């Protein structure tokens, strides 16, 4: 499948960013309860974060497109709790594009971008309930690191890049 990654254009696609984040939150936790606390009642907290970080060399915010259709979103940064490792905040695909083989393309893109940012590895948090994602990460070299005490259903995984 032909797709492309482009930096997020906040004014044109903020509503999509909010919807993608909410669906991701629901997929991770099985509820939207608590979601508004993470973005602000009208998304103002999330908007401010995006606005201040877009274009920063420490942050990556990309949308995934198939033709003219917006099909996904990635959010990551060049630092984490592990020195030299980046952190992936969000990997999101709209439901109609899940299971079509885009995971490998997305994974390669993320690794490439984090390497360009000077990272030697990465960390992410994934819901234990998302067996498909956990299996994908493990198959691609990610290893369980520790439980995520901020979210009872999630664990941290890490990967060291082959340089």
Describe the structure.
The protein is an alpha+beta fold and 163 residues long. The protein has a single domain, classed as Gcn5-related N-acetyltransferase (GNAT) (Aminopeptidase). Helix content is 36%, strand content 30%. A 7-stranded mixed β-sheet has the order 1-2-3-4-5-7-6, sandwiched between helices. The mean pLDDT is 92. Residues 18-160 form the N-acetyltransferase domain. GO terms for molecular function: acyltransferase activity, transferring groups other than amino-acyl groups. This is N-acetyltransferase. InterPro entries: Acyl_CoA_acyltransferase (IPR016181), GNAT_dom (IPR000182). Pfam families: Acetyltransf_1.
β-strand number? 7
The helicity comes to 25-40%
Order of helices and strands: EHHHEEEHEHEE
* Name of the level-1 CATH class: Alpha Beta
- Multimeric state of these chains? single chain
Global shape = globular
CATH superfamily placement: Gcn5-related N-acetyltransferase (GNAT)
Instruction: Kindly report the CATH topology.
Output: Aminopeptidase
Spatial gap, N to C terminus:
28 Å
Largest sheet data: 7 strands, mixed
Query: Average pLDDT across residues?
Result: 92
Q: Which residues form runs of ≥5 with pLDDT under 50?
A: none
User: What is the CATH architecture assignment?
Assistant: 3-Layer(aba) Sandwich
User: How many helices does DSSP assign?
Assistant: 5
Count of spatially separate domains: 1
């Amino acid at each position: 499948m032909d797709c492309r990654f482009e930096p997020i254009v906040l004014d044109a696609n903020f509503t999509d960013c909010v919807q993608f984040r909410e669906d991701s939150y629901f997929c991770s936790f099985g509820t939207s309860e608590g979601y508004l606390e993470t973005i602000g009642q009208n998304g103002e907290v999330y908007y401010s974060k995006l606005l201040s970080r877009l274009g920063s060399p420490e942050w990556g915010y990309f949308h995934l497109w198939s033709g003219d259709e917006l099909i996904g979103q990635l959010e990551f940064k060049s630092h984490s709790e592990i020195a030299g490792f980046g952190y992936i905040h969000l990997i999101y695909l709209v439901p109609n594009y899940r299971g079509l083989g885009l995971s490998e393309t997305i994974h390669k893109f993320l690794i490439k971008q984090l390497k360009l940012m000077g990272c030697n590895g990465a960390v992410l948090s994934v819901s234990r309930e998302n067996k498909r994602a956990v299996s994908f990460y493990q198959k691609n070299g990610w290893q369980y690191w520790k439980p995520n005490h901020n979210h009872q259903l999630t664990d941290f995984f890490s990967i060291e890049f082959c340089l």
